[in-house]
């Protein structure tokens, strides 16, 4: 019997021209991919691909049948979408946001997530990157926006979004609108606890130390505490939030943007409710970076 | 029991795989995802060494045979004969030495060409390694990386992996097409090698002595800052992959085979925390076995 999976394999192989890459796109390993292809070829009674050294190419028969496969797969997906839209409850999309994600960016991703599946309900939680990775892994979250770099533990991840950051300093600390990190000496930079995302935090601190040999860091529980310490003349906050402000605090662009906020969307390959996760993530990534 | 090792990996920002076993008591083990199949990077040079030594034992190769490496065709790399500007002639066993102690890519690919992939696969099966595949050498690895990164030279391809601002191209850290093994299979190889079950006494001694001359001390050996502890090892580094497998011998002679594989979250070429974490994880494992 011809199945949706056969069509996915056919199209992925035609697009990727590589067994390993096609298997990844479909979300299976190589042996079932090869087996699925053999079964499909038996079903349609034609050889669809030439398997060469390291390359896979469509045969004339494969090229002729490919448009039909695409149309069939699109119809099946439309059927799924229609079925979901008829469900009065709608599927639930549980989104996790790292605390570093600017509120406007988090809102944009949540809005875009809901728009992907008509009738879906979106719930949002905020938690540290390491906690979010764990929650996506265990199925408690559908997807999450986390700091990069991070240990993925087998999760799927979208492209890296780079959000520019600003320095917030006590009023009168520096005058220029655009400052080099070196000018921000004498006060510690407020950072969140290292255990929340060791690799990303180390990269931040290592980069900071490269550009700014003195001044150090001070660990704060959240941006609220960092902002308060800045207003009190005790710290500098580096933030990607374009709206974060307080009396007694000045905002400065960082020359050459040395400390961008690196964010990635992560999800579980086996638990995603999205029929075309890569397309959805591309949309959501755009929302994340565009806000 | 292995929660401490997992904590070491987490703190270093790596995904980690580990298997440690007491050479005299193979039932005593410490394991973290020990059966996961991981791309070996330059650790493949260890099974290659074992295969080479077996062919010497079988009389199929003469370890003193001279081979000339031509700069225009040899594999590039950061160490050993890979870096030489002019043709170099050395014996096969000296190429093996350079391959193991300096992770010399040119020497390794030259030896692999002589041993040949299909022959090596047979030998690894005969060694009892069910989950170890040497599918290509360093030159093949770099060619695959260039294809996946759509770059024209190895340095540009590796620079893509080192960039924290972009996503790793799909498949570069996948074991399916690369030389790959599990931590458990690597300690099995070391255990059988050290027990003299695979090679003649002469070749066993050559392999062990070669591994004891390892110049890189920043990984496994960094966990044992005592000259009384002997560490024989082989490292592997490729993009965010950082590995070392080896045998740690305590004063008094008790020895442990250890394989530590890591995949770092960061892409940077220099990651001293990860190197140190490999030593730290190995030390915790040995302490658990003592």
Give a quick summary of the entry.
The complex is a heterodimer of chains A (291) and B (290). With 291 residues, chain A is of the alpha/beta class. Chain A has 9 helices and 14 strands.
Question: Which terms would index this structure?
Answer:
heterodimer; A: D-Maltodextrin-Binding Protein, domain 2; D-Maltodextrin-Binding Protein, domain 2; 3 domains; six-stranded mixed β-sheet; 9 helices; 42% helix; elongated; B: 290 residues; Beta-lactamase; five-stranded antiparallel β-sheet; 9 strands; transcription regulation (chain A); LysR_HTH_N (chain A); LysR_subst-bd (chain A); DNA binding (chain A)
Strand fraction of chain B:
15-25%
Radius of gyration of chain A: 24 Å
Oligomer: heterodimer
Task: Give me the number of helical elements of chain B.
Answer: 10
Main structural class of chain A: alpha/beta
Number of helices of chain A: 9
Task: Tell me the helix content of chain A.
Answer: 40-55%
Number of domains of chain B: 1
